[in-house]
Specification:
This protein is of the alpha+beta class. The protein contains 9 helices and 10 strands.
Length: 348
């Protein structure tokens, strides 16, 4: 038993040690102090001793083998998880003892806990993605109704009344119908670009960002100081889409909350990562209060995009000191699904 990696022990009905193997001695006992003749109450904390004593008593009372997971501190004082098998024994003269064998399953329990937490995060992410998808569908349906639907209704009325018109009146109504068609085409194109600009797929990230900035400035009157490096190349579709959406949402938040006339956007290619930084010198806010505010929805979407790419997102802000959002997106997909992101962030 001394060469067995599992701990083995025997205790009498009072919980006194009468045998233990070398593995047990190395893991639990100080070299100069033997546990022979000592009870579990003398060598373990009260709560641990009570749990062990309850299990021992049940085995001796029932005469059955018990399989139990127990938390017992090792010699270093750290509480560890053990899978123990306990069974009743009897010597030649009828004295009863409790025998036991236990293996350390701490690493397995930690792995199981990490797996559960990962599954919970995945479930939460899946729920959030479904919520975002439904929100986008509602938003798209509302925009279709408010913009395209109204234009189509107007066009339908003009065409109906044109059937009864003659001469110059008919010509005027046809011109009105043509104007409505042009308006409808413009709204459809604008709606399409808002949801996903085709140039992102056709031309890449840099042209799409330049178009986004021009459109953003025209709509909000906020000037964007755009600095970029290494964007002339194409990136994988997931990275380009995530980068575009992060910039789009980040600039939208500046317009909604910062109260500034200018903002800074920096996008550059680092070592295997695409770095994005959006900064303003506006109102700022308490980051720790973010999840209870109206800003949290947009940030959640950005966090999800970064998480799916195994990147990193850092938000820095303080009341009256502006806001800086920095993201790192791995350029290449890791073969094993894991990725270490080198820190490229500068302090605020």
């Amino acid at each position: 038993m001394d060469n067995n990696p599992a701990v083995a022990f025997m205790r009498d009905p009072e919980g006194r040690y009468v045998y233990f193997n070398r593995t047990h001695q190395l893991l639990f006992q100080e070299p100069s102090a033997s546990w022979l003749g000592k009870t579990i109450c003398e060598v373990f904390p009260a709560q641990t001793a009570a749990e062990l004593a309850a299990h021992d008593a049940e085995v001796l009372a029932t005469g059955l083998v018990m399989r139990a997971e127990e938390k017992v501190p090792a010699r270093d004082g750290i509480l560890r998880d053990w899978l123990a098998f306990k069974f009743p024994l009897q010597d030649a003269v009828g004295r009863r003892f409790l025998g036991g064998v236990a293996v350390d399953i701490t690493d397995r329990k930690l792995a199981e806990r990490a797996l559960r937490e990962s599954e919970e995060r995945l479930q939460a992410l899946s729920r959030r993605l479904l919520e975002v998808q439904e929100a986008e569908r509602r938003s798209f349906a509302r925009e279709l109704h408010d913009e395209i639907g109204q234009a189509l209704t107007g066009l339908s009325l003009v065409l109906k009344t044109s059937a009864l018109a003659h001469g110059e009146d008919l010509s005027a109504r046809l011109r009105e119908a043509q104007a409505l068609v042009k308006e409808l085409m413009a709204k459809a194109r604008d709606l399409s670009l808002r949801w996903r600009p085709t140039m992102l797929d056709d031309l890449g990230l840099l042209p799409a960002l330049l178009w986004l900035i021009d459109r953003y400035t025209a709509q909000t009157s906020i000037s964007v100081q755009f600095e970029h490096r290494g964007l002339e190349q194409r990136f994988r579709q997931q990275v380009e889409t995530a980068a575009y959406r992060i910039v789009q949402e980040g600039l939208t938040n500046v317009a909604r909350h910062a109260g500034v006339a200018t903002a800074a956007l920096r996008v550059w290619l680092g070592t295997d990562v695409l770095c994005i930084q959006i900064e303003d010198q506006g109102a700022g806010f308490e980051v720790k209060l973010l999840h209870s505010s109206a800003r949290s929805g947009g940030l959640s979407g950005m966090q999800e995009r970064v998480h799916l790419l195994r990147g990193r997102l850092v938000l820095e802000s303080a009341p009256g000191r502006g806001t800086r959002l920095t993201a790192q997106l791995p350029v290449q997909e890791a073969e094993n699904g894991e990725r270490h992101v080198t820190d490229h962030f500068a302090g605020r």
